[in-house]
Specification:
The chain has 229 residues and is of the alpha/beta class. The protein folds into two domains: 121 residues, Rossmann fold; 95 residues, Arc Repressor Mutant, subunit A (Orthogonal Bundle). The chain is built from eight helices and twelve strands. The strands form three sheets. A five-stranded parallel beta sheet has the order 2-1-3-4-5, with helices on both faces. A four-stranded antiparallel beta sheet has the order 6-7-8-9, covered by helices on one side. Strand 6 and strand 7 form a beta hairpin. Helix 6 packs across helix 7 and helix 7 crosses helix 8. The longest helix is centred in the middle third of the chain and has 19 residues. The structure holds calcium ion (CA). The site of calcium ion (CA) has 5 residues, from loops.
Length: 229
């Protein structure tokens, strides 16, 4: 990721939407490269190495999911998926396939810009790890490995601490059981996703987050998310 201008690759076969993206994002200071098919998009991805990708699902040659899979083989660049369908199944599929966010068409300009800005903020935050997470409810001091809940100290096991750290560092993002195993366990080999389920249950209980309003959400069919207040 470079400083200054953010390079966006828009892969979309609808010329009107491409025009809209180019005009709208151009005004906001993004440098937009357009592609009208999946193959053209992948070629452009190689050439431009964009900071983020806007990807339509319904494309004439490769569909968006195939394009996303190939992008994920070579890069972690954030991908915002545009989908004409808004069913829960599509959203889960998008997240499973490694999309960072998705937007259902027709979308508002304001919403598109807000999503892109949120993705950029997460990108910058991931590049410059913070020394502290504090949302006024829970505070995690990554340097001293101390956790404070509503001002009072909490004692966590090393695995619980790493689980919590992984979740708050990715606040707002859904993490799969496999991702959490990679992030929170010393030796992830052979661990079943059920281990994550029980570790999450214990962590919730310890933090008294086991009510309906828990900030540590289960996203059915996909994983877990820390919902920042
Ligand atoms: Ca399309």
């Amino acid at each position: 990721m470079r400083d200054g201008e953010t390079a966006v690759l828009a892969i979309e076969d609808d010329a009107d939407i491409r025009q809209l993206l180019k005009a709208l994002l151009g005004r906001e200071g993004y440098k937009v490269t357009e592609a009208s098919s999946g193959r053209e998009g992948l070629r452009a991805f190689h050439q431009v190495r964009p900071d983020l990708v806007i990807l339509d699902v319904g494309l004439p040659d490769l569909d968006g999911w195939q394009v996303l899979e190939r992008i994920r083989d070579m890069s972690d660049a954030p991908v915002l998926v545009l989908t004409a369908r808004s069913t829960e199944r599509d959203k889960v599929r998008g997240l499973n396939a490694g999309a960072d966010d998705y937007l259902t068409k027709p979308f508002s300009r304001v919403e598109l810009l807000a999503r892109l800005q949120a993705i950029r903020r997460r990108q910058v935050a991931a590049r410059e790890p913070q020394a502290m997470f504090d949302d006024g409810h829970i505070r995690v001091d990554f340097t001293h490995q101390e956790v404070t809940l509503e001002g009072g100290p909490v004692l966590l096991t090393p695995t619980e601490y790493r689980l919590l750290t992984a979740l708050v560092r990715h606040a707002g993002q859904v993490l799969s059981a496999d991702q959490l195993i990679e992030l929170a366990w010393d030796d992830p080999s052979g661990l079943a996703p059920a281990r994550v389920k029980y570790a999450v249950l214990r962590l919730r209980r310890k933090l008294e987050w086991d009510d309906d309003d828990s900030p540590l959400e289960t996203v059915r069919g996909f994983g877990y998310r820390y919902r920042q207040r």
